[in-house]
Amino acid sequence: MRNLNIITRKAERKYCRIFGKVRYLNNEVDARILNLSITGAAVEIRTPLYAASGSRVQILAEDLGTLNGIIRWSHNGRLGIQFDPNSNARAQVASYFRFFHKDVKPVLTR
After folding, report:
1. Which pLDDT score is estimated for 2?
2. CATH of 14-100, one of 3.40.1180.10, 3.30.420.10, 2.40.10.220, 2.60.40.1120
3. For 41, 47, 68, 74, which has the most beta carbons within 10 A of its beta carbon?
4. SS3 21
5. CA separation for the pair 107, 61 (Å, rounded)
């Protein structure tokens, strides 16, 4: 089978429920990280964050610290964020999985 030049995830994502904030420029919104990997995260935000794909953001969470990344997609109050490859994100996420993570199942909301 051919790949058809489709970009796929490079790392397995695990479901989680981590509460924190997403910061874009001078704006901060409450957020919940829905799934997480060493390369990125899917985040649900409570209020609109007026940032386009490609915008640089920070995720601030007590269990993870500060993670820098870029918005890759946005849909219905959710963001896909790819972490900066040259940041400490890999170490921070690996540490979270080692010390804090408990397996959770996705919950349907709305």
Report:
1. 54
2. 2.40.10.220
3. 41
4. strand
5. 20
Q: What is the pTM of this model?
A: 0.76
Q: Which helix (H) or strand (E) holds 81?
A: strand 78-83
Find tokens 């896909």 and name the residue: 80
In the predicted model, what is the mean pLDDT of residues 38-54?
93
Decide if 58 contacts 23 (C-beta within 8 A).
yes
C-beta of residue 14 within 8 angstroms of C-beta of residue 50: no
Report the distance separating Cα 76 and Cα 97, nearest Å: 27
Reading the block at residue 102, the tokens are 């408990």
CA dist., res. 10 & res. 87, Å (int): 17
Residue 94 backbone phi and psi in degrees, to 5: -60, -40
